[in-house]
Amino acid sequence: MSGAVSRNPDEAQRVALTADALAGLSAARKTLPCKWLYDAEGAALFEAITRLPEYYPTRTELQILQDSGQEIARAVGPGAAVVEFGPGDGAKAVELLGALSAPAAYLPVDIAPEWLEAAASRVASAFPGLRVRPVVADFTHPFELAGRADGSVRLLGFFPGSTIGNFESDDAVTFLRRTRGTLGCGAHMLLGVDLVKEAGLLVAAYDDSAGVTAAFNLNLLARLNRELGADFDLSGFFHRAMWNADKERIEMHLVARRMQTVSLAGRKFRFASGETIHTESSHKYRPERLRAMAEAAGWRAADMWTDPKGLFSVWLLAD
Ligand SMILES: C[S@@+](CC[C@H](N)C(=O)[O-])C[C@H]1O[C@@H](n2cnc3c(N)ncnc32)[C@H](O)[C@@H]1O
Fold first, then answer.
1. In the structure, which protein residues have their CB atom closer than 6 angstroms to any atom of ligand 1?
2. Closest to 158 (Cα-Cα) out of 59, 104, 86
3. What is the CA(272)–ligand 1 centre distance, in A?
4. φ and ψ at residue 302, rounded to 5 degrees
5. Reported confidence tier of residue 147, pLDDT bands at 50, 70, 90
6. Which residue puts its alpha carbon closest to atom 24 of ligand 1?
7. Do 249 and 205 contact (CB within 8 A), yes or no?
8. 113, 119, 111: which is closest to 95 by C-alpha?
């Protein structure tokens, strides 16, 4: 799909979702892009995930932002406009903007209008004088910020939640390189990155005992039924989260419980019993690898903060 979804966002998104679903389900190893997990249902389920005892990333990253806010503010300097990629509910932006000195504006960028609205109104009510300009766009494609920010204002990119881990490593470098161009001269980027750790902790974070992550994953099939008229039988699939040690990533899959055929957009897709749809990868990084990726993209890794247990990291990249 193209980057900015503007004239008829619903139709543009439906066309893009159809194209991605047909391509992904036709592949030898079936897959669906994780960006489609976040419709209104998915957004609500993800928010519930962030409150689960097993899901350490959100509370750990928020704590790092709270503890290091003053240092981040000093390094960034006054008057920066914050461009947030994938803001979710905007809670982390509120923390960051509260620490920064005289932020000029807040520009959340998200593919899901439901998220954007929530993040923009949360930030606007926390900072009544602040300029808030939401941008509906797919950040895996080039998109325009022009006209959204005053050209003379320095930009601070903000990409929390380890959403960068959803990219394959090469795509993460491409994203970081392109973002450096989008943010322009003198920009900074604040990046939240989940770290490699013991597999048991990781799997539990993506396969909680209450089954919320399972519902979040299965909602993707429900979305294809709702929006594209597909006929997935949700009881025919179950959620699996697994640690792929070679690739240092958690993979989420939907596993077919039995042989079955599903129709979508006039096509039929056959599933063998046990066949999976790979719906999300969450790569975990070692600090030296993340630093190398940032440098390969033309950024300088200026600083890094972590929590006492070394679970999560927040990086400040400089142009
Ligand atoms: C895992 S949530 C993280 C939310 C929040 N940043 C946090 O740290 O809790 C991912 C966010 O990125 C958005 N997103 C995922 N893929 C996207 C894409 N390709 N383009 C734009 N937004 C995307 C989702 O809609 C959602 O708001």
1. 35, 38, 46, 50, 58, 86-88, 92, 110-112, 115, 138-140, 160-161, 163
2. 86
3. 32
4. -80, -35
5. low
6. 86
7. no
8. 119
The pLDDT of residue 1 is: 39
The residue ranges of every structural domain in the chain are: 14-48+205-283, 56-197+284-318
Rounded to the nearest angstrom, the distance between the alpha carbon of 309 and the centre of ligand 1 is 25
Which of 57, 69, 60 has its CA nearest to residue 94? Answer: 69
Tens digits of residue pLDDT in 3-34? 444 446 688 889 999 999 999 999 999 999 99
56-197+284-318 CATH fold: Rossmann fold (3.40.50)
229 dihedral zone (left: phi>0; alpha: psi -120 to 50; beta): left
Average pLDDT of the chain to the nearest whole number: 94
- 83-97 mean pLDDT: 96
First CA to last CA distance, the chain? 29
Who contacts 209 (Cβ-Cβ below 8 Å, separation ≥6)?
A: 54
> 99-126, pLDDT tens digit by residue?
999 999 999 999 888 789 999 999 999 9
Burial 150-188 (b: 16+ CB within 10 A, else e): eeeebbbbbbbbbbbbbbebeebbebbebbbebbeeebb
| 75 Cβ contact list (under 8 Å, min separation 6) | 188, 302, 303, 316
> What pLDDT score does 148 carry?
60
* Separation in Å, CA 178 to CA 111, 172, 215: 17, 10, 34
